[in-house]
Write a structure and sequence with these properties.
Blueprint (H helix, E strand, L loop, with lengths): L1 H33 L2 H10 L6 H7 L1 H17 L3 H15 L1 E3 L4 E2 L4 E2 L5 E3 L4 E2 L4 E2 L4 E3 L11 E2 L4 E2 L4 E3 L3 E2 L4 E2 L4 E2 L8 E3 L4 E2 L2 H5 L15 H29 L5 H5 L6 H8 L1
Parallel strand pairs: 1-4, 2-5, 3-6, 4-7, 5-8, 6-9, 7-10, 8-11, 9-12, 10-13, 12-14
Antiparallel strand pairs: 14-15
Helix pairs in contact: 4-5, 7-9
The structure holds coenzyme A.
Coenzyme A (COA) binds next to strand 14 and helix 6.
């Protein structure tokens, strides 16, 4: 009697386990189906810890939240508001990321780690934007209409940063971790602190490499042109390095390319120009 009961219990537990594994696999297959290739690629491009597509599909809440938001956003615009809110509520429970279905999000959006991210209803996010955990794109008033921020293309927002109100963050701007941003940030600028201030690029670069192509002599066009060319070479090098990494992932040997690369020192060249 006892062995029969134990066997029955084991079979029930085994059955339960199998059904859990099957359900999880079904959800993963659905995620793999809905996730676009560029969603997955943007994880590899921006998180060196990502190792395989399976890992990205199963272990990245930012990707799951993006997929849920895509569905909720469609429902929102189909005037199925409650269903849209309910779906984003479920997504919040599963991922720790709360994105209002009304928020507009561009392509290749990536939220790393994810937990504690809140994105408000009238927030607008451009392409290639990266957010880390704890970021809030929030409002400061209860008035209807635009009350959340707009982020340009390529913006990076550090962990814990709060961007509040209908302000504009320019293309490729960076927001420091834990910053509280309440005013517009110009394109390419870095803002940090509470309230956030724009970091002084020259002080930041210590008079060496300046990504914006501006040297110590702001009025000399030759000086400006040379800094611009040096900055451009750095960007080209970064792109080549990116291509080499992709080739490496595909199994193409690239060691020789790396070994024979010349030793380009932009800081040294910038100092000579200045
Ligand atoms: C703001 C940030 C983008 C600046 O990076 P950077 O351009 O390399 O600037 P630096 O590190 O040279 O710092 C420049 C100045 O800003 C200060 N600073 C840097 N980050 C800051 C921050 N988050 N808050 C306040 N001040 C900051 C530095 O102390 C330095 O001050 P100083 O000029 O008085 O010495 C970066 O520090 C940051 O916060 N990135 C987000 C990273 C993140 O959230 N990672 C999460 C991974 S899980």
């Amino acid at each position: 009697m006892v062995p029969a009961f134990s066997i029955a219990l084991m079979l029930i537990i085994l059955g339960g386990l199998v059904s859990v594994i099957l359900s999880v696999s079904l959800v993963m297959v659905a995620i793999a189906f809905i996730a676009s290739r560029e969603d997955i690629r943007s994880v590899f491009d921006r998180d060196p810890a990502a190792r395989s597509t399976f890992e990205v599909l199963t272990c990245y809440p930012g990707l799951h939240a993006r997929i849920f938001h895509r569905m909720a956003h469609t429902l929102w615009h189909a005037n199925l508001k409650w269903l849209a809110r309910f779906l984003s509520h479920i997504a919040r429970g599963l991922t720790g990321i709360e994105i209002h279905p009304g928020a507009t999000i561009g392509r290749r959006f990536f939220i790393d780690h994810g937990m504690g991210v809140v994105i408000g209803e009238t927030a607008e996010i451009g392409d290639d934007v990266t957010l880390y955990h704890g970021v809030t794109l929030g409002g400061t008033s209860w008035k209807e209409g635009k009350r959340h921020p707009t982020l340009g293309n390529g913006v990076v927002v550090g962990a814990g940063a709060k961007i509040l109100g209908p302000i504009h963050i320019g293309d490729n701007a960076k927001i420091g971790s834990n910053a509280v941003v309440v005013k517009d940030v110009p394109p390419g600028a870095t803002a940090a602190g509470i309230p956030a201030r724009i970091l002084d690029e020259e002080k930041k670069s210590g008079g060496g490499f300046n990504a914006y192509g501006i040297g110590n002599d702001h009025n000399d066009p030759v000086n400006k042109a040379l800094h611009g060319l040096i900055g451009h070479s750095v960007t080209v090098d970064q792109r080549i390095e990116f291509i080499l990494r992709q080739l490496e992932k595909m199994g193409v040997p690239v060691e020789e390319e790396r070994a024979t690369a010349d030793k380009f020192d932009p800081n040294h060249l910038n100092k000579i120009v200045d």
